[in-house]
Amino acid sequence: MQKIISGSQVKELDKLYVQVSGITPYQLMERAANEFCHWFTANFKKDKTINVYCGTGNNGGDGLAIARLLADQGYFVNVATIGNREKGSTDFIKNLKVLPSSIPISNWRDLKPSEIIIDAIFGVGINRPLEGEYLELIRRLNEENGVKISVDLPSGLPSDTPADGEVFHAAHTVSFQFPKLSLLFPEHAKYVGQLLVKDIGMEQKHFDAFPSEQYFFSGESLAAYHKKFHVFSHKGDFGRIILAGGSYGKMGSICLSTKASLRTGSGLVFCKIPGCGVNIVQTTIPEAMVLAPSLEMDIDTNIELTGIDAIGVGPGLGKGENAQKLVHYILENYAGPTVLDADAINILGEHSDWLPLLHANVVLTPHLKEFERLIGERSDNHLQRIKLAKAFCMEHKCCLVLKGAFSLISFPDGSQVFNNSGTVYMATGGSGDVLTGMLTSFLGQGYTMKNAAICAVFHHGDAGELAGDKLRRGTLASDIVENIPQSFLAWDIE
User: Fold this and answer.
1) Which CATH number fits domain 222-490: 3.30.365.10, 3.30.1070.10, 3.40.1190.20, 2.60.40.290?
2) Is 380 annotated as a binding residue?
3) Is 113 known to sit in a ligand binding site?
4) Which HAMAP family is this protein grouped with (predicted)?
5) Where are the domains of the chain?
6) Tens digit of pLDDT for each residue in 316-371?
7) Residue 61, annotated ligand binder?
8) Which CATH code fits 2-210?
9) 59 has binding-site annotation
10) Which of 99-108, 272-281, 295-304, 364-373 has the lowest mean pLDDT?
11) Which burial class, exposed, middle or buried, applies to 102 when counting CB atoms under 10 A from its CB (0-12, 13-18, 19+)?
């Protein structure tokens, strides 16, 4: 799991790394440029014209190295610089000296538009809005039609805070070793495009000197987060869980959660649903058992909690009187692992006096709007949401998964994990219900809260990627469910 540090710490990290590794800063820059070029050459043909725009700092040095390496492989590359070359950073000047004479280099004003634009103007050092000729250049590039690629950060974007002013609009951003925090903000999607994080050889021990409670998870050592079962394990060992939800016209939600929990490995799944959903669930999912009121159509609080390993409540539940009673009853009477999703979160948001009932075994899984209802505060600033999620979990000693691209998992100890799996094709009704079933399943199987959250969120995104690769915009939530076993197989999870 990769630690995320602030942009202001990057230079110190680089300095520390070259000291302990025995390489030079120039060699580290060369390593980053090679990683960029490996990705680039796998995705772009040599018949495209390329303009590389370089500032005079280390990001510009990366750009010069990239231009040289691409030219060596047969690409037609032009370089344009902005700023005083003679006052550039040490490694910028070094890369400028070794740039082959075959690569045209000019002032940015003299360069004609190209089919591919590589932005290496500013990196993590920028801390104020663009102005002067830098602003003029970025505005011009944003109006051009070429494929736009940023090196480490889109120029004009601060590394840790929301954008303030004009920013380069990249279709792809190739960052090194770890994503800078601002690359993970939803409001910056139009600047970042597709985010790729390339490993340049730094290990976690090199980050130990830099305090941070934020991490980026891309599946490293995923198997270590999973629980292992032996040959004599039986269905009881794989957990007895209850999934509570569903209402007239919304039974699909609880069906998706139930299927997902079974595909994730639950041994026994009981569905607490209203009477109107009995035939639907028993016909659709014969492996599930139904707990329903004998006479009433609405869900009720008649539920036996003894012997249950985990509960998930909320998908399709509605916010009626009985639904509210059920949420309150579970929070008040069940101390085991509990997942609150969808309407359970909305109900909790309307009853803030119930918040003291949250405990260390509770995990909430809101999307952005549900999070606002829960917190009682609206914000279009993701940095603020990150802080609010951390404070909420530390205060109420619970876990929270803020769903979306790079879903954020916050823990009661203040640590936070951004998840790096998933695809835009998961933006379809029912995807969150699938996550509820997966998370409840892992908790029921005896995973710790941390491991359950990390595994559920990662495999949920990965299964979505597998489905999206085949079906694109046609991906359904049920397709995510069907790809859960394939995700386990892909990561060698038994």
Assistant:
1) 3.40.1190.20
2) no
3) no
4) NADHX_dehydratase, NADHX_epimerase
5) 2-210, 222-490
6) 999 999 999 999 999 999 999 999 999 999 999 999 999 999 999 999 999 999 99
7) yes
8) 3.40.50.10260
9) yes
10) 295-304
11) exposed
